[in-house]
């Protein structure tokens, strides 16, 4: 076995066990580790050693003292443990386990109980009879179902033990009590060996009386007394069909909700009951979805959420939904939430399913993936219309193709959606989501609108978030967002396009400084200068000079916002009527001395 580090390996994985007076590691599996608990018990059972079997009993008793059985509980492990204990003559440990099973409402097989009686009779352990009878009584009260021949077998074993007539009468009284009241007509019926009479009761009474709470009570009684799996399956299908037929009527109310409350709230449900309610709920939801009864479908989903039933890992019980993919089931549920105006509900059910589309255990087809695509696009647009940008981004991140490469979806098609999100964030000055969206797009090689990327760089710089601004500027250069820095960076000449913002201009100057760092010191003793030319755009004619003059002001501002400040000196205007500046070497040298440590790492690429 491979155990998490928090568990004591001496206790769980050696015959001798843990001998520490005070052990810092766990000797009982934690809640949520039922799978580990079952694996440990299986291992001890397979070794067949008496000491380990006793330890298995300790683990079982202590674990289920705090925890109720979940999806990883194995009835086979329980039965095997009891049989192994009997084979090793550990009868009192058997009683310990049986008492726990009564408390957690998870009973062993009838055959195992018969073997306990046989063991006590064959070894003539008369001292154990009172405990045996008491335990038997508890098991019956907890819902263990016996055929009449089982009672006869038990009575024969007790006769072999020559027990008192009082003890025999106790078993006979239990046998005679094995009747139940018809919940609807108050007639007395003998419990049948199959579930057929329960099914007939469902069909004849519930459809006529529409008493869905009583249907839930009837299901509990039937499940308790139904030993045959096939009969229980028939009963479950019958109830599911009755509940789904409500979609064919216009009557108010949702029968499923009353039924689910009766099973889960008004009884002590086991995991099988919760799975049954979940699967039935899926079938009922499908029936309402088919006839566009969105409000009733929503009530079904709200009830499953209220009862904390994780239906997204289940399949339907009747009809096509029995074969439906997980993706399709989640799509239907999310669509119902959308149709009833609940964006949070749609997102909840998608999160609950971990946004799964196609997976080895949950295969789906192209139609399901297309439906998911359309669903998420609609959901994202609705979030954007309500200015809920973080929620919209979460939805977009989980479009088909991102989480699962087997979806065979070209994610480049999502460029427009992400750019719409970034643009909407700009309008509301939400830099956090904008930055996260750009990071995601860069990681997935999704085309970014260069205008938006430049806007983000400028906004980050103006908000003094220079580290982020430099990161995106560097990415923008590699993507071709900017023309190659004209001039010769390593030969003291920089040409800056006049359409850049002051933030972009400063970042271009930083690269220029770092590229010439080794020469700036030597320039201090020469007459050479660092020159910057502010290039005109094609539409910036001499006659229309206002845009160019605004660019001049941005260049001056870029030098001023630098830390430390840089100083530019106007030199001349070239033949293209472009301003030429020299960068004062003293300020350049000071800038490098204070910033070269980080700037070299950022800009030397």
TrEMBL record:
Primary location class: cytoplasm
Residues in C3H1-type zinc fingers: 2-30
Gene Ontology BP, a term: cell differentiation
One term under GO cellular component: cytosol
Compartments (UniProt record): Cytoplasm, Cytosol
Function: Important for normal spermatogenesis and male fertility. Specifically required for progression to the post-meiotic stages of spermatocyte development. Seems to be necessary for normal expression levels of a number of testis-expressed gene transcripts, although its role in this process is unclear.
Signal peptide range in chain numbering: none
UniProt protein name: Protein TOPAZ1
Keyword Transit peptide: no
Residue ranges constituting the C3H1-type domain according to the UniProt record: 2-30
GO molecular function, a single term: zinc ion binding
Highest classification ranks of the organism: Eukaryota, Metazoa, Chordata, Craniata, Vertebrata
Coiled coil residues, start to end: none
Keywords associated with the record: Cytoplasm, Differentiation, Metal-binding, Spermatogenesis, Zinc, Zinc-finger
Pfam families the UniProt entry points to: Asp_Glu_race_2
